[in-house]
Every structure is written in structure tokens, then in C-alpha cells.
Specification:
homodimer; three-stranded antiparallel sheet; globular; DNA-binding
DNA sequence: TTGATATCATTTGCATACGAATGAATTTGA
DNA sequence: TCAAATTCATTCGTATGCAAATGATATCAA
């Protein structure tokens, strides 16, 4: 083995991963796939609502009337995104909109009776979705996962 | 307390969560937020590529020439999605397309010299992104997280 | 061989997701 | 008080992401 070969070996030993970047082991890729898998499980249980739509309904059920942007911040959606979600829920009669009487900038969002029925009917199913998503994890692993990422804002 | 009240209490005790569904504790919500956070960290480090675009480049760098659909399955994107990503990379001169000489259905994708340079320049940064995303976790927690979700397909 | 299947890619339609720009209304601060 | 800054909502543009339909090509099987 030449001196040059030895030097190469040493370099490889010092930085073993410089030349092999494994996409499948990067957090971003794993998060993207885990999210895809969850959306798929969700769709298999609840065909007529998307996860963001259900999130909006569930949060409205929890907190009652709020402004559109406020709701958005509660469910981690920016103003542009939440508008689209609410528009579609409104078109389906699950929420209704009204103007804030004092602050004329605000658009208040409320569940309709139909929307309330839908949430209450779907919440048990949503619990099953969470369960099924966590199924490949042991109870302890699931607990760690939930705790860790729940902390993140 | 009436008999009816007692019955209600009992029901509540048996199913303590029936009436309080906490969106912030559901896996889907947590996954969505964790993914959002990662995309934000990615954008702060690599402004001119999205995570899916970088994934395509990194995988091409890893496996070399492949068909568009094959690449899609390697990076977990369906045919329609990968087409858009590859189109944009092609428009920027980072990949080039050619027809498979035998199987005329296939569209072969390759890195250009510029694309190869870009990937190799960005891989160290991508490692930093993974590190920063996992920063709030201890080494052991990060290992658990990676192992668990890496298993998922 | 040829008819049924399967695969590869494209297109369309819909639903997030976010940055940036805009306009209306409110709040702040000098 | 009144100009500056902030907040709420909308709109536009761009980029995933997926289902479904379509067309072209390949493969399989009778």
C-alpha cells in the first residue's frame, strides 16, 4: 500500500460519511414519509375531510367562536392557508362566518349545527387514527415520540 | 345528587376523554408541526432549493441515472409530483432528461455538472440541517426517533 | 400472434402551504 | 391628536401532494 493510499484511508476514517449521504436517514425525509403515512391512514378512516379541515373543526369545537387568523394560529396555519380551509368548510355548511361588531377587521368563525355534529361524530374515529398511526411503536416509544415533538411549539 | 347525576359522573369516570379531544396531542398534528419546523430550518440554510428538490438531487447523486418514476419511488413521490419537481430542476439546469433507447416509455434523469456540483456543495449543509432539527432532542431521544420512523417504509 | 394487463409518463383538478404585496381598520406613541 | 406601526384579512404566485383519467409502450398469456 502506497503512502498515498494510507493517507486516503486515514481521511476516510476521519470523515466516514463525507461521501455517503443517506437520504433515507435524514430527519426531513423521515418526517415527510411519516406525515404521508398518517395522511393516508386518516383518509382511510375519514374520507370526506382532510386532516387540516378536521383540525379546524376540532379546534372550533374546543374554543368556540374565534377570528379566522386566531383559529389559524391555534392550528398552526398561516392566514392564506386557513382562509382556503375555512372557505371550503363554509361551502359545505360546516362553519359559518360573521363580522366582528367592534373590530371590523375580524372575521368570526363558528361551527354550524351540522359542523358540531360532524366533529362530535368524528372525534372517536380521530382517536383511532392516532392509535393506528402509533401502532408500530411500543407504548414507551409512542410516549417518547409524543412528548418530544409536542414540546416543539 | 340525583340518581341521574350519579350515572353521569360514572360515565365521565369511565370515559374521561370522550369530551376533551386535544388536537395538540394528536400524532397527525404533531407530525405536521414537526414537518413545518423542519422545512423552515431547511429554508434558512438552503434558500434556493426545496427539501423535495434537494432529495431528488441527492438521490440522483447516489444512484446515478434513473427513470423519472423510479426516482419518484426512491424518494417517496408519486408520478405527478416527481414530474413537477424534475421539471423545475431541469428548468434550472440541474438535471437533464433523455429518452430510454430500448423502453420508449421511460424518461431518464441525470444530474448535470452543475447539478452535481450543487449536491456536493449542499450535502454538508444538509447534515447541519438534520442536526439542527434534532437539536432539541438528546442523543438517545434522537436515536430512538430516527430508528422508529426510519422503519416506516 | 394477439388480446388482456401492466407500466411509464402526462395532464387535470383539488387541497394544503407559505412568501410577499395590498388594503382596511386599529393601536401606539411622541 | 395624529402619524407610524401593527393587526386582520385577502390575493397572487409558486411548490408540493395525491386521485383519476388518458395515451403510449411493453409484457404476458392463451
Amino acid at each position: 500500500m502506497s503512502a498515498e493510499d494510507v493517507k486516503l484511508k486515514l481521511v476516510e476514517a476521519e470523515e466516514p460519511d463525507e461521501n455517503d449521504y443517506r437520504l433515507q436517514e435524514q430527519v426531513g425525509f423521515i418526517l415527510r414519509k411519516a406525515h404521508q403515512r398518517h395522511v393516508s391512514i386518516f383518509a382511510a378512516h375519514i374520507a370526506d375531510l382532510t386532516p387540516p379541515q378536521f383540525a379546524a373543526l376540532a379546534k372550533l369545537h374546543d374554543v368556540g367562536e374565534t377570528s379566522q387568523n386566531q383559529l389559524g394560529s391555534l392550528i398552526a396555519m398561516d392566514a392564506a392557508t386557513v382562509k382556503g380551509v375555512i372557505d371550503r368548510l363554509k361551502a359545505r355548511g360546516l362553519v359559518e362566518l360573521s363580522k366582528h361588531e367592534v373590530d371590523k377587521r375580524r372575521l368570526l368563525v363558528n361551527l354550524t349545527a351540522e359542523g358540531r355534529d360532524a366533529v362530535e361524530r368524528l372525534i372517536p374515529i380521530a382517536r383511532e387514527i392516532t392509535e393506528e398511526t402509533l401502532a408500530p411503536l411500543s407504548a414507551k416509544e409512542a410516549a417518547i415520540f409524543m412528548r418530544l415533538w409536542a414540546m416543539r411549539g
